[in-house]
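Our collaborator T.R. sent over the components below with a one-line note: 'Predict the complex.' Nothing else. No constraints on interfaces, no templates requested, no preferences about which chain binds where. So this is a plain run: every listed entity goes in together, and whatever single assembly comes back becomes the starting point for the next discussion.
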Amino acid sequence: MIEQVQSKVRELLEAGTIQGFLGLREQNGHIAPHLFQDPTDLEGMSLGDRERPGDARYPLTKILLTLTGNDSRAKLGILVRGCDERALESLAAWNQLDRDKVVPVGIACPRELAEECECERPYPKDPVAGEKTEPVAFASVSRIEEMEPSERMRYWLREFDKCVKCYGCRDICPVCFCRECSLEDQYLIRTRNLPPENPVFHLTRAVHMAGRCIDCGLCEQVCPAEIPLRTLYKKVGQIMEDEFSYHTGETTGKPPLQIADGE
Amino acid sequence: MEYSSVLTTCTYCGCGCNFYLENVDGRLTGTIPCKTSPVNQGRLCIKGWNAHEFVQSDQRLTSPLIRKEGRLVPVSWEEALDYTASELRAIRSESGPDSLAFLASAKVTNEENYVLQKFARAAVGTNNIDHCARL
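Returned assembly:
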């Protein structure tokens, strides 16, 4: 798989189509985000698989935002899985990214990862490597919906109570781009509380992610308290589909909860 | 355009969490917890998450300071260490080793803390050694 990606990246860099390729590189036994700029030096390129498929994924689209914010003329390539591609679309829909300046190089996720993620589209539209596998239903959401409402409430309050307020979920999020964060807004949340105001803190973020979250799951992986954030945001995504027929990262056009016109 | 992610160890406490500091054109822009680190396994506390901000704070001390005539004056490490050593010596010879005490730090490694208690006990000759984590 890696050879196909490397050869595509080499071709893009040699042709001058892109000035750099944002991907992953293995160095000293660790996998890290890396900007490849020399077509003759693609050594050590990684797809983020270490012990298991996709266990060393990083928020590359978030790094892309920093780079394009720094130099808006640059055209960059980026390694994408299905979720990363949805992130690109989501960021473009929120006017954070010029899609014409980004060339995705896609890989399809293996069955094992698709199941672990309960991914609705475990592949980008046009992958250069990997076999497309079937979508997986949100079993984690269904399990919680089987609970009685009072039991469900207790479950979430208990989970949110574990929060140490590290803001890791926000900091790792590939589609969190606001300069002023709702989670630090004293009019929305009692900001000096620890654990944070329960459930207001987590529900504020959940609502804020409506029409933005692309279900990559990095927030849940980064959470030191192991709060099942992904399940919560999966449900938010389902509500967006049911109520607004809006599938984040898939539906084109203005997200239903976007107030500013982006002009 | 220059981008690099540099693997390093958090300086906030002795846990030794690993993260990448992101460098864009010579400026630190972010901290990303290292997923392949056996210590923190891709997670961080709020202090670690903000490491890139304090590194570049203009309020950081960039050299040792010695109070001279009531004012703190930046000096070289050599001068600071010479001054500290001569003062420690003078206090010990005048009032004995138990007139000195040493406070170790949660921000350094076990090994560095070990060296400090060794210095207190074996070099200076006092058991007055404590650690900020007990405060």
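Summary for T.R.: Chain A touches chain B at residues 19-20, 22, 27-35, 37, 50, 55-59, 63, 66-67, 70-71, 74, 164-168, 171-172, 221-224 (CB under 8 Å).
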